[in-house]
Amino acid sequence: MTQTQILSKNQQIVLDIIEKAKEPLKAYSILFNVQKKGIKAPLQVYRALEKLIKLGKIHKVESRNAFVACKNSYCRISKATAFSICESCEKVTEINNSKISKYLSNFEDNTGMTYKKYNLEFFGLCKKCR
Amino acid sequence: MTQTQILSKNQQIVLDIIEKAKEPLKAYSILFNVQKKGIKAPLQVYRALEKLIKLGKIHKVESRNAFVACKNSYCRISKATAFSICESCEKVTEINNSKISKYLSNFEDNTGMTYKKYNLEFFGLCKKCR
DNA sequence: ATAACAAACGTTATATTATAACACTATGTT
DNA sequence: AACATAGTGTTATAATATAACGTTTGTTAT
Question: Do B107 and A86 touch (CB under 8 A)?
Answer without folding.
Answer: no
